[in-house]
Amino acid sequence: MQIEHWFPIKILYHDVDNNIKTQTKAVVNNEFKEQCLNFISKENLTTSFYNQKNILDDNKFFVLREEIINVANSFAKELGFSGYKKLVIKESWLNSFNKGNYEILHNHYSNFISGVYYVNSNEKCSNFYFEDHIETRKMWSDYYQCYRMDNVQATVYPPIEGRMLLFPSWLIHGVQPNEEEIERISLAFNLDVEN
Ligand SMILES: [Fe+2]
Questions:
Q1: How far is the CA of 100 from the centre of ligand 1 (A)?
Q2: Smaller CB count within 10 Å for the chain: N or C?
Q3: With 0-12 CB in 10 A as exposed, 13-18 as middle and 19+ as buried, what is 143?
Q4: In the chain, what is the straight-line distance between the N-terminal and C-terminal CA atoms, in Å?
């Protein structure tokens, strides 16, 4: 008997070293938070997406930017992509979630690899979550006696400070409501290939 495992989804997480973590947090809190974040009521979060489309272009983020590119190259290789000249960060922006803020399910469809890096958070802050993109698979949900990686309909990642997540841009995801008093700040980004 042979059982084959088709259509897997790969999600990467990576913890940066303490220097990158501390430096990035200081740059965001001291220089960017006040000047580029705006509350967007229809999305229920505060973001720089609409006024600073590529915050990682700033050289103060040089080490984080290089780290993201390196990790994304490894991820792309793992996904089976090759032959491209280089990966570039097309867009990057800050998101801030105060108590009660959340982000509804969405994807970053016209991109390649997307990601998020946690600048300021603790594990009790709201989780990032992914949903199974194969909608019809939900019809099996009543049959499972236990849940495993290959049959869950959704999975969550706690926002651990200094951690980045990388995922295929087409994968739907969101952020659960933040119940904590602390401001949960993340830096999101989209990567594409340059040939
Ligand atoms: Fe997103």
A1: 18
A2: N
A3: exposed
A4: 43
Sheet holding 103-106, edge to edge: 103-106, 173-175, 128-131, 154-157
Quick check: 177 and 104 in contact, CB under 8 A? no
Ligand 1 center–CA 154 separation, angstroms: 15
User: Is the pLDDT assigned to residue 53 strictly greater than 80?
Assistant: no
Strand partners of residue 95: 47, 186
What are the counts of helices (DSSP H) followed by strands (DSSP E) for the chain?
Answer: 3, 11
Distance of CA 54 to the CA centre of its chain: 15
| Residue in 192, 138, 151 with CA at minimum distance from that of residue 9 | 151
Q: Does 129 score more than 80 pLDDT?
A: yes
Question: Domains in the chain, start-ordered, CATH in brackets?
Answer: 12-194 (2.60.120.620)
pTM of the model: 0.94
Nearest CA among 7, 8, 10, 6 for reference residue 166: 10
Asked if residue 193 lies in contact with residue 84, where contact means CB atoms within 8 angstroms, the answer is yes
CA of 114 to the centre of ligand 1 (A): 8
Q: Which two tokens stand for residue 21?
A: 């973590």
Helix 18-27, helix 62-79: angle, nearest 10: 120
CB 69 within 8 A of CB 32: no
For the stretch 88-123, pLDDT in tens is 999 999 999 999 999 999 999 889 999 999 999 998
